Each structure stands twice: as C-alpha cells, then as structure tokens.
Recover the amino acids of this structure.
C-alpha cells in the first residue's frame, strides 16, 4: 500500500467513526468528486444511503446559506426532489471534523438515480423534467433571503463581463476569439437587456454532475446548493441548459424543451426567452475562462477539467446555429410567437391584399395556373430528381401548355427531395432543410417581375453556385404600424442586379427584375422563387429559401405563406405533416384540453380509413372496434361519391326547396311505424336530444325529465342536465331539480338479475317511483329518456318488458317517451333497425345521430304529427345546416348501403358469432363475468371474482393497451366501473375480423396474472 493509499484509508476510517459517533450510522463510505468540498457517498448497513459533505473552514457563509435554503425549502417546497438534512444526534445540522484540516460536516439524504453525465437514459424528457423542477424550485426561492447569496461570484454569468480579463489565459487563438466575441456581446447587448428581467436567488449549478435521473431518464434529484447566488432568474435556465444539451442530438431543441417546461410552471417573459441562447453561450465562455484561470492557480485539481472538452465541443456546435432561428425556437417552446411581429405583418397583408399588383403577367386579370407537385412523396419525384435544367424546363413548359395555363407554380410548404447539396445541411447531423418557403412561378427566362406593393431594395446577392438562388433581391417594406418585412425574389437574371442599388425605391406594380435563364439562375428551369420574410436571420441576400420540417412552426413564421400576396385561383400552399409529439403539443395549446386524445400514452396519427380499419401515417391498418359513427365503413365509396357530387352542385340551407331533402325525410320516416312520420334535421345527437326536449315541453306543458342512471345524452347544457354520466361525475354539478334519475336496469350486478323473469317490471317500478316523486310536488314529467341498449351504462341490454312498463308509467302521468338511437340505431342490433324495437315499443320521439351520416355531422328527430304541430307555436324553428342538400344526399347513401349490402343481417350474424366466441372464452378465462349485447353493440364485463363481481378495471386497461400494441386492435372501456370492454365496430366488421379479435383477446387474457 502506498503512502497515498494509506492516507486515503485513514481518512475514510475517520469518516466512518464520525458517522457512528455523530449520527449513529454504520456503513461503507466512498469519495465523490467536488470542487470546494469533500464529498462522500454513505451506504448504511440498514440499506439507507446518504451524502456526506465536509466543508472547508473558509466556507462558513456559504455553509450557512446552504443550511438555510434547505430549511426554507422544507416549508415552501417539501415535494421537491432535493436532499434533506439529517440532524446530528444532538439536534444540530452540522458537526466539526478534522479531515485534511478543520472542516464542517453535514449529512444529507441520498437521492436515487444516476448522475446525468453517466446516465444512459438521458434525453428530451430529462431536459423537460429538469426545467419543471427548476421552475418550481425558483418559485419557492423567490422569498428566500440570505446574506451569503449577495456575493460577487465568478460563476454568476450575470457578471460575465468580469471575465474578459481572463480570455488570454485560454489555450488556442480560436478559442480565445470565440470566447472574447461572446463576452463582448454579453457586455454590449445581453447585460443591458437583463436590467428589465427579474432577480432572485437561484440554484445556479444544475450541471450534469448535480442532476440525477431515473431509469426512464426523468429527473429524480438535484444536488449541491453551494453555488447559489442572487442574480437574474433567467440565468438558472441558461446554466442548466448548457449542461443538458451536452451530447444531445438537437442542442437548441434541448434548450427549448427545458425552457418551455420551466415556463409552464414559472412563467418567464419574452425578454428572458430572447436572452437564453446568448446566456447559454455565455456560460460556456465563463466556464472556459474560469477553468483557464483556476488551472493556472491550482494545476493539481483535475475536477476543473471534468467538462472542458464537452464545453468547447458544444460551444462550437452552438456557434453553427443561426442565432435568430435558435431564439425563435426557444420562444416557440414557451408558447410565444416565434417571430414577434409576424402576425401583425400578415394582418397588414390581409387588410391590403385587394390593392396588390400581380407579380407576373399583371395584364392577365384572371390567370390560369398549372400546379406542379415537386414533393418527395410525388409519384414523379424520382423523374424530376434526375432531369437537368433544360429537360426540366421543357417538361414544365409542356405541362403549362397542356393545362392551357398562363404560368405554373410550385407550392409553399412542400417537402422536397431535390435539395441535395451541402447547403441544405443543418447543425443537427441527421436533419436537412427540405420544406419550400416560397412559391415558385414558372415562366420563360426574361419574364418581367413586378413589385406587389411599394418598397425599397434592401439586399442584392448573386448566389452563384449550382442549385443556389442565383441572383437574388430582397425588397424591404414597412406596415402602417412600423413593422418591417421583406419580399424575396430568387433565380433572377444577372442584368437585374446590374440595374438595382441598395436603398433604391420600387413602386407598386413596377417591373424591377426579370427571370434568369438556367445558366445564371443556379441551374434551375427558369422561374421566380417568391418568398415573404419577417426575419432575414441576419443573412440578408443569403436568406434561406428552404426550412426544416421538424421546426416548421418556426419557419412558417419566419417566412409565412405568400398566398395572400399572390391571390391565385388555385391553392399555392400545402399543410406540412408533423410528428405525433408536436401534434399533441399543438392540440394542448390551441384546442381545449377537455377534448381528450385516444390512447394518450401512445396516440395514433390516423390519415385514412377503409371498411372496419383505420390507417396511420405509416400505412399500418388498425382494426377499429369502437367506431359506430362510420357505420357502413370508413370512407365508403358510395357515401363519398354522393357527398362529392352534391358539393359540386349546391349546398345551402333548407329554406329552399330541394328534392333530396323531401326524399330523405320520406325514406327515413318509412323506417318507423305510424304515427312516427315527421322529421326534423339537425347536426349532432346532442342537438337532436335538445330539440326533442323542447318538443316534449311544448306538447306536454311540463318541464321535468326522467332519465336512467349513468346515462349520457349529449354535451349541450340541457343534455348534461339529463346525463348522470356527466352531472354525477368529475366536474359535474349534481342532479338538477327538474331531473329525476331512475335506477339503471342492470341484469348482471343490479338488484334484479338474470333469471328473474319479472326484472323488467321491477326495474320499471323505479320509473313509476320517479313519476310519483314529481306528483308529490305537484309536477308531471315532460319526457322520459332511454336508450334501447344502455351504452355508457356498460352496453346493458334491457330486461324484457322494461320499456313497455316504463313507458306506461310515464304516459299515464302525461309525459312523452323518447328512444335515444344515437348510438345504437340503423340496424346495428341486427334483429331490428332500431334498438328500442327489441322491447316491442313505439316511442313518441326518436333521436338519431352518429351513424346517420357515416361520419358526416348530421342527426335527426322523428316524432308524431301532433307533437310536431304543438311546436309550431309562432316561434320559427330553423337550423342553418340541418337538412342541407349535401347532408340529405349522404343520408340517402347511408340508407342505400345498409339496404343493398344487407348490413342489418350482417350485424346479426357476426354479432352472434362474436358473442358465442366471447362466451366460449369465458369458460377458459374466469375474468370474463358477462357477455351481452345485440348484433354489433356488445359488452364484455370483466370481474376479479364472479361471486363478489369485483370490477377488473385495471386488467381491462391492460387488455385494451395490449390489444392495441400487439394486435393492432382498437378498443375502449365503458360502464360505471370502467370494466366493460366496449365493442361497436363499423358494420362491415367481418367474420374474419371477428375471429381475429377473439384469438387476440384469448392470447391477451392468457397473459393476465391468475
């Protein structure tokens, strides 16, 4: 053993003795790296772990600060994942010890996880969870005050200008130049801007050795409060981001993820968001200066070198980023507009578009335009890619002639595969710029180019490289509110550049340029690349004409859709397809979060459908077993054709006479017995049920309603009132005074069960009880709501005679009876067209929705002439879209398909096959408690015990997830206990589909723990 080894072992022995004496803890001790303190990991014999810190004697103020902040956080943020102090046996926080001189010992709880720098799980979630933790931490530290935090601290990058004097200590002229430029920018621009930002105490050192991650890469702990300082709050984000991005695929994306997460829990200002990119660079510059200075002063401290290779590599990577794009991306991550004034520029363009001049061929009042598809997904993409400029020019000219067009266009937002040079690379190694930021206008070389509105020449540039822009002009414009923007004109003639000068005014409609030939325009077929620019990114005439798909929300603000300027008779832009994570983010930002996302843990991006299948963006087919809306099958060609044909002729409101509306009402009413022969047309099942309630109140003069427990009849306020599923659930306001709730007739777990031949009457007695309750208060029912099969109740089939008895009680009291067929109508039950017919009753009102239009938003109410007449009380009823010609044609097509493809019979046959198969599975899998339904509206109820009927809700969650993951089958749950597997596929669901489902369910049930 060497002298150093012996010394180290003696230190560890002294530390172990300290732990026993001061804390009563025995265990193993291992050293950890540290800049100022001596740090040790303690593994106690009882399995607990701790962090032991031995503070140097000159760190009294610093130590007091650290002790104080943990005490502060214990009361203000007890849930934060930070170390907590372990008191000495006598109740104090610290104890004196002699290890490498006199020191103060402090024991802290050990936080689980791996150090960020050594974790194999780190990723974007790591940055996001760190941002969240720091945001919550800084919110708690707003009220923290301690003298130790007011120090002038070299690691406070809010004072980075102090390090200019140390730049010359850095090895390497290139490093010195980079660091000096960053620090000079800090002093000149960043520091003055910081003066408007909030100041407070921050942690200031969320580096990759102070942050712990769990196995999923999420932050599990934050260590070491020794670098705390009172400074500008935004410094916290910059310091953490500087370490988070080390080794990350997308440096700016990582900064944005961390910043956005921080902002969501602790909102920052737009000024702060705009400074973060510079501050991250500043942190690297300060780190390099500090390392150079400290290594000069203390060459044996290797800890100082821990991250310097990373720092220089990552700083170089950031230097390759376009600063303006980086700031725009960080702003976007926070929910700010990527370019602050872009929306105002577009608003100005919209307001003034009527006065713009045409850019090409202004003498043609209504030009004919040929539209080209240069997208990478085009069937002709490979052909375009191999054509030289002359061949492409000939092909383009021929197509324009074939279309009898005045010129051709290539559209904005197109993802193109033709940009293959190094110029389209980005700072992200596997990402290229490929999305077209302008509109191409194809015309012969020499075609004059006109200014759409007045401006002045701002930039001239000849991008004289193959497949570059060639001669390029940017005109500068200013709105009436002072916002500056530019229009870009690329692929011009060289003569154009010779005739223009910077600052030269250009009038609206003035011919100021001409299209260049391929030999001068970058080797392209002659055309104009026209682009709007709200921020030229510091590039001037070298402005990009192609953006990054995964950053499209930023690039479309930098260069918005120029269609508003062109005013063409054809679409000049396409929607850029995005990844699922981005779509989820945008839904949360722009659509109410109460609108849920199916399979939110692993959502699907569905782009097509056929029959009983949905198709995702990768072409994967998913067996859809929950979509009773597309009743006759997704994208049924007859329905699609009917809609397209009528849209091409007319779509207007129902005040005008139209044959289709009358024919559809005749066909629909013919599906019901007399006296149900009058139709009202609306747009959704909710609206249909709301109208039905109005009809009942008009006819009866009563206002009260009886509904079945756990029922759902729509999302309108009036329907929430009669839906216990909503008003008695989370966020509900309870039962309204005008609503009576009847017992749910559940033959499986209700009071009266299978085998009770009188169960229907017994359950209907509770409807009578609700009638009597109203009568006791001098009131009578207007309407009784019920489905023919209770959907949200758990796909419950009704006991025999239930509706017959219930209707009799309600009608005896002067009320009307409604059959809600929104979910179950149009032959789905197999034996009948309508589910209420399985009960042998004729309602007073029937409502329909969902399947009526096969996904088209339409619905209907059918009632009697007498009830309809009572509604004609002088107040006109009108529905703008209900019964429009397109909806009527679609409705007729759905009825035709149901009839011609014998779908009602098909539902019965396949439904029997499905339920018989599910009951066979129940013999092998005790978790299946009940199988019920009619046709293709079924419920499979899962229980943990067939005697106690304990619901197996979590097991069903597993089944639904696994059926999706492994078998590509889409299912969902239903019922008050969320333990009923809901089955309601499109009616074309085949016997083959049924067997596949049953086999998959058998396999999945077999993997459940017994």
């Amino acid at each position: 053993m060497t002298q150093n080894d012996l010394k180290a072992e003696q230190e560890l022995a002294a530390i172990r003795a300290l732990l026993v004496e001061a804390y009563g803890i025995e265990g193993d001790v291992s050293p950890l790296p540290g800049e100022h303190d001596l740090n040790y990991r303690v593994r106690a014999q009882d399995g607990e772990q701790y962090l032991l810190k031995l503070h140097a004697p000159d760190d009294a103020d610093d130590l007091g600060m650290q002790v104080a902040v943990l005490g502060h956080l214990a009361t203000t943020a007890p849930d934060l994942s930070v170390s907590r102090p372990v008191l000495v046996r006598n109740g104090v926080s610290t104890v004196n010890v002699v290890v490498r001189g006199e020191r103060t010992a402090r024991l802290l709880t050990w936080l689980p996880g791996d150090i960020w720098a050594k974790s194999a799980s780190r990723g974007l979630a790591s940055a996001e969870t760190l941002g969240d933790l720091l945001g919550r931490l800084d919110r708690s530290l707003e009220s923290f005050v301690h003298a130790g935090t007011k120090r002038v601290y070299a690691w406070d990058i809010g004072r980075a200008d102090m390090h200019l004097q140390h730049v010359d200590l850095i090895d390497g002229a290139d490093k010195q130049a980079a660091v000096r430029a960053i620090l000079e920018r800090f002093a000149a621009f960043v520091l003055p801007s910081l003066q408007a930002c909030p100041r407070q105490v921050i942690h200031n050192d969320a580096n990759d050795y102070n942050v712990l991650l769990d196995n999923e890469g999420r932050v599990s702990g934050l260590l070491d409060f020794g670098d705390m300082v009172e400074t500008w709050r935004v410094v916290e984000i910059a310091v953490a981001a500087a370490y988070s991005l080390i080794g990350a695929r997308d440096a700016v994306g990582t900064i944005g993820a961390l910043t956005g997460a921080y902002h969501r829990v602790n909102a920052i200002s737009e000024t702060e968001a705009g400074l973060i990119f510079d501050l991250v660079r500043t942190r690297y510059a300060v780190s390099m200066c500090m390392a150079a200075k400290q290594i000069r002063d203390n060459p044996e401290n290797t800890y100082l070198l821990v991250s310097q290779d990373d720092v220089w590599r990552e700083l170089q990577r950031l230097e390759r980023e376009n600063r303006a794009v980086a700031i725009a991306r960080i702003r976007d991550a926070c929910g700010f507009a990527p370019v602050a004034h872009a929306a105002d520029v577009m608003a100005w363009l919209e307001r003034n578009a009527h006065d713009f001049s045409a850019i090409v061929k202004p003498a043609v009042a209504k030009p004919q335009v040929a539209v080209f598809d240069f997208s990478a997904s085009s069937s002709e993409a490979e052909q375009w890619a191999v054509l030289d400029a002359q061949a492409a020019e000939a092909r383009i000219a021929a197509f324009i002639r074939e279309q009898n067009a005045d010129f051709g266009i290539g559209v904005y937002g197109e993802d193109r595969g033709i940009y293959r040079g190094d110029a389209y690379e980005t700072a992200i190694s596997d990402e290229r710029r490929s999305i077209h930021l302008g509109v191409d206008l194809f015309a012969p070389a020499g075609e004059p180019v006109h200014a759409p509105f007045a401006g002045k020449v701002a930039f001239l540039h000849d991008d004289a490289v193959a497949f570059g822009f060639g001669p390029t002009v940017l005109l500068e414009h200013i709105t009436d509110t002072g916002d500056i923007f530019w229009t870009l004109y690329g692929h011009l003639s060289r003569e154009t550049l010779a005739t223009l000068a910077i600052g030269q005014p250009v009038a609206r409609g003035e011919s100021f340029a001409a299209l260049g030939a391929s030999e001068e325009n970058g080797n392209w077929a002659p055309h104009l690349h026209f682009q709007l620019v709200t921020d030229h990114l510091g590039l001037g005439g070298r402005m990009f004409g192609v953006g990054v798909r995964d950053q499209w929300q930023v690039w479309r603000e930098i260069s918005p859709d120029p269609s508003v300027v062109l005013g063409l008779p054809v679409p000049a832009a396409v929607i850029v397809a995005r990844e699922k994570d981005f779509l989820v983010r945008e839904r949360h930002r722009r659509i109410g979060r109460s609108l849920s996302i199916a399979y939110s843990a692993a959502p699907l991006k569905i782009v097509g459908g056929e029959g009983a299948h949905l198709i995702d963006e990768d072409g994967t087919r998913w067996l859809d077993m929950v979509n009773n809306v597309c009743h006759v099958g997704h994208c049924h060609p007859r329905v699609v054709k009917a809609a397209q044909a009528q849209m091409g002729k007319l779509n207007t409101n129902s005040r005008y006479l139209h044959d289709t509306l009358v024919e559809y009402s005749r066909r629909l009413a013919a599906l019901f017995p007399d006296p149900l022969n009058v139709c009202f047309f609306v747009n959704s099942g909710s609206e249909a049920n709301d109208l039905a309630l109005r009809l009942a109140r008009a006819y009866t003069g009563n206002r009260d309603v009886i509904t079945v427990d756990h029922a759902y009849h729509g999302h309108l306020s009036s329907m929430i009132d009669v839906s216990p599923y909503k008003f008695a659930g989370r966020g509900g306001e309870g039962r309204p005074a005008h609503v009576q709730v009847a017992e749910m007739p559940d033959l499986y777990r209700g009071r009266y069960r299978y085998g009770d031949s009188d169960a229907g009457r017994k359950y209907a007695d509770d409807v009578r009880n609700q009638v009597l309750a109203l009568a006791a208060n001098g009131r009578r029912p207007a309407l009784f709501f019920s489905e023919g099969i209770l959907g949200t109740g758990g796909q419950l089939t009704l006991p025999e005679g239930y509706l017959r008895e219930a209707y009799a009680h309600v009608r005896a009291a002067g009320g009307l009876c409604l059959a809600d067929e929104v979910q179950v109508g149009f032959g789905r039950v197999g034996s009948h067209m309508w589910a209420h017919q399985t009960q042998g009753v004729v309602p007073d009102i029937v409502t329909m929705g969902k399947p009526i239009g096969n996904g088209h938003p339409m619905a209907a109410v059918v009632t009697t002439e007498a009830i309809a007449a009572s509604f004609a009380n002088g107040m006109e009823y009108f529905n703008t879209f209900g019964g429009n010609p397109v909806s009527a044609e679609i409705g007729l097509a759905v009825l035709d398909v149901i009839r011609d493809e014998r779908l009602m019979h098909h539902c019965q046959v396949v439904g029997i096959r499905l339920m018989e198969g599910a009951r066979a599975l129940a013999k092998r899998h005790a978790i299946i408690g009940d199988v019920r339904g009619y046709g293709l509206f079924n419920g499979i109820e899962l229980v943990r015990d067939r005697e106690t009927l304990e619901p197996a809700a979590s097991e069903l969650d597993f089944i639904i997830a696994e059926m999706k993951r492994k078998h590509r089958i889409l299912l969902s749950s239903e019922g008050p206990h969320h333990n009923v597997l809901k089955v309601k596929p499109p009616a074309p669901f085949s016997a083959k589909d049924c067997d596949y489902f049953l086999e998959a369910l058998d396999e999945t049930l077999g993997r459940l723990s017994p």
Notes: The radius of gyration is 36 Å.
